[in-house]
Amino acid sequence: MRARGFASLLLAELRSAQMGLIWLALVLAATALSGVGFVAQRLHAGLQRDAAQLLGGQLLLRGDHPLPAPFEQRARALGLRMAHSELFASMALGPGAQGRTQLVAVKVVGPGYPLLGHVTLRPVRPGEALPATPIPSPGTVWVSPRLAQRLGAPPQGPILLGQRSLRIAALVTGEPDRGAGIPGLAPRVMLNQADLDSTGLIQPASRVEYALALVGPQPAVDAYAAWARARITGEALRGLHLSAPDAAGNGFDRNLQRGADYLRLVALLAALLAAVAVAVAAQDFSRRRQQVVALLKALGMPRRGVLALVGAELALLGLSAALLGSLAGLGLQALLLGLLHRLVDAGQLGPPGWQPAALALLSMGSLLLAFALPALLRLAGVPPLRVLRREAVAAGGAARLLGAAGLALFALVCLLLGGRGWLGWIALGAFAAAAALLAAASWALMPLLRAAGERGRGAAALAARQLGARGWGAVAQITALGLALMALLLVGMLRDGLLAGWQASLPANAPDRFVINVQPAQGPAFRAALAQAGIRGYDWYPMVRARLVAVNGRAVFGRDYHDERARRLIDREFNLSTAQSLPANNRIVAGRWAATAGPRGGELSVDQGIASTLGLKLGDRLRFDIAGGTLDARIGSLRKVDWASMHANFFVLAPRAMLERQPFTYLAAFHEGAEAPPALDADLGRRFPDITIIDLAELLAQLRHLLVQVGTAVQWLFAFALGAGLTVLVACLFIGRRERERETALWRVLGASDGLLRRVMAAELLLAGALAGLLGAAGAMAAAWLLARKVFEFAWVPSPAWLPAGLLGGALLALAVGWLSLRRVLRVPPLRLLRAAD
């Protein structure tokens, strides 16, 4: 009987409006957290797999000269599978007098290629059979689509590569280890290793990347990596590098990771909104149930019975919310991946793991522990005499300790969800700072509201005086409302402002052609050809090839650095340039630009990123070797460079006078718009045979499609943040509801009309919403600016129009939601309200 009675009481408690709000907030948070967690987990696993395929194996050994024999012998001794390849840029020529030239990326492959994945082919003519071999047969090549057309050749060729005429046997539409850089961006020509010598393409001075891809059991791979790195470092083997997969290894995957950060931010905001809703609803539930608990204790229920009731309520709430939220999260991740179907193949990502569901369960526990349990534990301390005497019940030390532990656990969950970097820290810090500032500002406004109410007349004055008289209750209400509106406005800014700023980094006129090796004597004629084609406003820079040989008078070598990227930078050549004005996509973060471009400029301007990688700082003296000569100068400024802008950028900019005496070529970057002649590339290639034209149009189209699809996914996830925000708004309006009911009943007893009460209630809701919206908009603008700078890495200046938008939106939203929640107060007889308030 006691068990049945306990169950009946438990069900009655769970059916309360406050518990319903807590449960709804938990379900929304669990759905957003698990859904984004499933997406991030599957994308990360897919990116790790794709990174290994992009590399060509679990390890890739690369060099600018033929690889030493001991490295292959060691791999064979460890039982690793190997595949050799060579990659270099060359010019292909179409047949006959009308044949055109085209820069191509030649990949020479042999037996065993590819070790991971497979080459995707398309027949040259519809209906033809595809080659049965994994690499081109001798005497044939596989090429990128439309290469034959660009060369003026028939679909099956032949094309001339060096001294050899080769037939096109298939079109390459995908390859697992597509490289980056200029050779990787040019159209592909895949050649059998047996045909390489007959082409005569590789000469003693040719620039070729030799590669050895390796796969095998992970222990053997790790052993080989340790041996190879020790050998490269110990023997100071210049130009030799060992690479492992990196899921953030190319620009496209970094953009996809940035899209995942957008989704994580919206999920974090949903979780933080749920925390506010749980805290507000739990506090209200605790206040409303104190009289009931006092009565139960007076009837004989022990303290442990109250604790058992509270524990059972929270356990049922947390477990059911986590279970339902995880199931809904699976549906959410299917929806989000469906929206990204052209970018990622969900069927190739593997099944969802259990970790996001576990994170959702952990987050539910931390939310209840931090924001619900302390309030509900106060019920265990309610004395039976409270049936007769109304007195406040303070939280005990155990409740405070449990609340602190829950807060720490919830913060850890948010940081885990935020991933690496500043996202989780900024979201938590912004909410904590906003809560403190909102509370302080609200408290400071209370005397002003009371004073305005005493001096004014009408419904607005009564509402101001009533809101100001509530003290901490009104402060709590405005603070909670402000946090909810801040999160909703932040999501709105993210959707409208940050996504727009990200998309602005790839404008419609972003350069899609890069031309290098324009000789100084060809410069005027080349620029005249661009002007004749209607191309204006393009990038035009002199470019000098140089190698960094000393820092502060000390010679530098790749072996001096532990970082793999630093070793590669030291062992490669830099492209130096000069500019009269600071490039638009650059920002000085230290030093002065005038030290480089001013009338007395004699110092270098260095990219902040490369300076950090190489350990450089302002005032350091750098020495470059340029074709046997030297350039020696100090660092006068550091620049933050937007490398995703698709414009020409340089690690080092030098004063013009320093480069005028050095051998240089020009680089041009321009957008080949619809007004340009369709054969412009071919015409430029014929008129200036020394130049190299790099076509980025397909890459830009892919990146723009990524932006559109990620934006669509963010807008769908916005619905969950909106639902969590509305839940908070409803919960916030429960704050002071008992006082409002009692005041309304007294006013009606004293003769106040329903019309006056409606006007007062509407004015109070509008006033509280307007204050919360104004303060929340200010907090959202600050958080959005910080996120744009620290997480998404582009400049974004919030519009002042968000302040009146927040004020008006907060007022109207609070009025709409509040009226739906509180209209019953005006329908209930005053005597019933007074009895309920008692």
How is the topology of this model organized?
Elements: H1 2-14, H2 17-55, E1 59-63, H3 69-77, E2 81-93, E3 101-109, E4 120-122, E5 140-143, H4 147-151, E6 159-161, E7 164-174, H5 181-185, E8 188-192, H6 196-199, E9 209-215, H7 218-234, E10 240-243, H8 251-298, H9 303-339, H10 355-377, H11 397-418, H12 423-455, H13 459-469, H14 472-504, E11 513-518, H15 523-532, E12 539-551, E13 554-555, H16 564-571, E14 574-577, E15 586-591, H17 594-597, E16 604-607, H18 608-614, E17 621-626, E18 629-641, E19 652-653, H19 656-660, E20 665-670, H20 680-687, E21 692-695, H21 697-734, H22 737-749, H23 754-790, H24 802-822, H25 830-837
Helix pairs in contact: 1-9, 2-8, 2-9, 2-10, 2-21, 8-10, 8-12, 8-14, 8-21, 9-10, 9-21, 10-11, 11-12, 12-13, 12-14, 12-23, 13-23, 14-21, 14-23, 14-24, 21-24, 22-25, 23-24
Describe the model:
The protein contains 25 helices and 21 strands. It has a six-stranded mixed barrel with strand order 2-3-8-5-7-6. It has a six-stranded mixed β-barrel with strand order 12-14-19-16-18-17. Mean pLDDT is 77; it is low at 247-253.
